[in-house]
Design goal:
CATH topology of the largest domain: Jelly Rolls
CATH class of the largest domain: Mainly Beta
Keywords: DNA-binding, Transcription, Transcription regulation
Structural class: alpha+beta
Radius of gyration: 22 Å
Number of helices: 11
Helix content: 40-55%
Pfam families: ExsA_N, HTH_18
Order of helices and strands: EEEEEEEEEHEHHHHHHHHHH
GO molecular function: DNA-binding transcription factor activity; sequence-specific DNA binding
Largest sheet: 5 strands, mixed
Strand order of the largest sheet: 1-3-8-5-6
CATH architecture of the largest domain: Sandwich
Number of domains: 2
Protein name: AraC-type DNA-binding protein
CATH superfamily of the largest domain: Regulatory protein AraC
Distance between the termini: 28 Å
Shape: elongated
């Protein structure tokens, strides 16, 4: 596991951007010229993030996705790690469309789909590419800024969801699944296994699980039978041994892929678990 970064920024959205919430669906332009290092974002609502200038990287419990101004994100409510990169002109801009949980539920109450079965899904982000329709949709949100009519914004949400679903029917079960509850233990296992080979800290894992560090460690031990630090060490060294033995790779070829920043730390961890160095392990096996 990596070391905790005590200077990381934490922000709650949408309340961190606006004093008064105008309705259960609303749009908000966002612009900056500052480079945003990795920040902890607590999304209180679901969010469509339409990029216009710059790039965005988003890490959820289910993994990391990056996107430029050619696309846009749907980010489900929950905890995520987010960073922004300005464009070549030194600017970052996007249009944010915040969507409450109740407004998403109302969409499925208003529209019936033949295959709209209720399926629990991972709360993971979805990246889309823009087309002419979406470009015009963003323009319409910009034109609506002066009106701030909650009813119109809810209609725009229905328009957007219906359009996206017409392009990809699998989105029905995805959005429908976001209306359901998640099994905590199943989610914990998925989160941990997804980040097995990344240099993520215990603190960041707890954040992505929406838990305090003490609660995360307690539930982790109950689920996996070991502390996070020891479990991650054993799992990574098991995989390292398999790569050294079955693929004939050298330690210098595998340490980075297993979440280590330097070879010496990897060798030390390998010896701690297996009792010998990676080179000795290969000679023995």
């Amino acid at each position: 596991m990596g070391q905790a970064n005590n200077t990381i920024q934490e922000m709650y959205l949408p309340h961190g951007l606006i004093d008064h919430i105008p309705g259960e669906v609303f749009a908000l332009p966002y612009r900056t010229g500052n480079v945003n290092q990795k920040a902890r974002i607590v999304l209180e609502w679901h969010l469509f993030n339409f990029l216009m200038e710059g790039e965005k990287s988003v890490s959820y419990a289910t993994g990391t996705q990056r996107l430029g101004a050619e696309g846009f994100f749907f980010l489900p409510a929950g905890n995520c790690l987010m960073s922004e990169k300005v464009a070549d002109n030194g600017k970052y801009s996007c249009m944010l469309l915040f969507v409450s949980q109740q407004s998403l539920i109302r969409f499925f109450q208003a529209h019936s789909f033949d295959d709209a079965h209720s399926t629990t899904t991972d709360p993971s982000p979805v990246a889309f590419r823009k087309d002419a329709y979406i470009t015009n949709f963003i323009t319409s949100l910009q034109l609506m800024q002066s009106s701030a009519n909650p009813a119109l914004y809810e209609l725009k949400l229905h328009e957007l969801l219906l359009y996206l679903i017409s392009k990809d029917k699998q989105l029905i079960s995805y959005f429908k699944g976001l209306c359901n509850e998640y099994d905590e233990e199943t989610q914990l296992r998925k989160i941990v296994n997804t980040h097995l080979e990344t240099a993520i800290t215990v603190e960041e894992l707890a954040f992505l699980c929406n838990m305090s560090i003490s609660t995360f460690k307690r539930k982790f031990a109950r689920t996996f039978g070991d502390s996070p630090k020891q479990w991650f060490l054993k799992m990574r060294m098991q995989k390292a041994a398999a790569m050294l033995k079955n693929q004939g790779l050298k330690a210098s070829e595998v340490y980075y892929d297993l979440g280590y920043e330097n070879l010496s730390s990897f060798v030390q961890s390998f010896k701690q678990v297996h009792g010998i160095t990676p080179k000795q392990y290969q000679l023995t096996h």
